[in-house]
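go over whats below:
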Amino acid sequence: MKNIYIEYPRCTTCKKAKKWLEENKIEFEERNIVTETPTTEELTEWIKRSGQEIKKWFNTSGLKYKELNLKEKLLTMTDKEKIELLSSDGMLIKRPLLITDKEILIGFKEELWKNI
């Protein structure tokens, strides 16, 4: 499997992460989180593989998250509903994402990314 790097091109953290990948000569296939939003099937698999809670996948600092008052709504939603919501709008998903054979990284923390 090829590494998949999912980003929002205008996001400064995404730009930093992409530059880091390139500088470290890590090959990846690029995807725009808005025009190629991950499907419910992809998200279901990735969330399970990541070992992270679904709430870690939400872009909690995003306008859309705040507009929809998701902090409250997520408390009463099922996992299936949360995943469907994430797949409905890429701007709700925390970014960047790096999907590799071994692990799935959410957000850019260089010290964690070094392990790949």
About this structure: The chain is about 40% helix and 10% strand. The mean pLDDT is 96. The first helix runs from residue 12 to 23.
